């Protein structure tokens, strides 16, 4: 209870009974290291309050490069090279919300 009132500023204007009702309806979820909380474009059904630890937001991005090189004096060869890269978007620290915007608008998680 005190963690929410002290560290989550969104709760600062709420009465104690309202914060307690949110906590009563909440479920604790503990993630293991490298466990995925949600995937890109997954519909949001929950809002998460990060109490301790860190969460890294990442997206796998596919890049494509077209390479050309001469094969003789009047022709060229080409090759399309596709690469998947894990792109770090943000590292979240304790006392932040995750998924609130998506739940309010019923949007998929935009990672």
Structure, described:
The protein is of the alpha+beta class and 111 residues long. The protein is built from 3 helices and 4 strands, in the order H-H-E-E-E-E-H. It has helices at 2-7, 16-25, 100-105; strands spanning 48-50, 55-72, 75-92, 96-98. The strands form 2 sheets. It has a two-stranded antiparallel sheet. The longest helix is centred in the first third of the chain and has 10 residues, at 16-25. The radius of gyration is 22 Å and the shape is rod-shaped.
Mind sketching the topology for me?
Elements: H1 2-7, H2 16-25, E1 48-50, E2 55-72, E3 75-92, E4 96-98, H3 100-105
Antiparallel strand pairs: 1-4, 2-3
Structural class: alpha+beta
Oligomer: single chain
> How many helical elements?
3
Low-pLDDT residue intervals, each spanning 5 or more residues? none
Proportion of residues in helical segments: 10-25%
Structurally, the number of domains stands at 2
Give a count of the beta strands, DSSP E runs of length 2 or more.
4
Average pLDDT figure: 81
Q: How much beta, percentage-wise? A: 35-45%
Order of helices and strands: HHEEEEH
Notable traits:
111 residues; alpha+beta; 2 domains; two-stranded antiparallel sheet; two-stranded antiparallel ribbon; 3 helices; 20% helix; 38% strand
State the gist of this model.
This protein is α+β, with helices and mostly antiparallel strands and 111 residues long. Helices cover 20% and strands 38% of the residues.
């Amino acid at each position: 209870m005190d963690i929410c009132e002290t560290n989550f500023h969104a709760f600062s204007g709420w009465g104690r009974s309202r914060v307690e009702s949110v906590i009563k309806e909440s479920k604790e979820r503990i993630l293991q290291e490298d466990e995925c909380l949600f995937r890109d474009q997954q519909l949001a059904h929950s809002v998460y309050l990060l109490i301790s630890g860190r969460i890294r937001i990442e997206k796998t991005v596919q890049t494509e490069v077209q390479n050309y090189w001469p094969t003789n004096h009047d022709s060229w060869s080409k090759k399309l090279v596709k690469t998947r890269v894990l792109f770090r978007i943000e590292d979240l620290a304790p006392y932040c919300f995750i998924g609130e915007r998506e739940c309010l608008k019923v949007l998929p998680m935009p990672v």
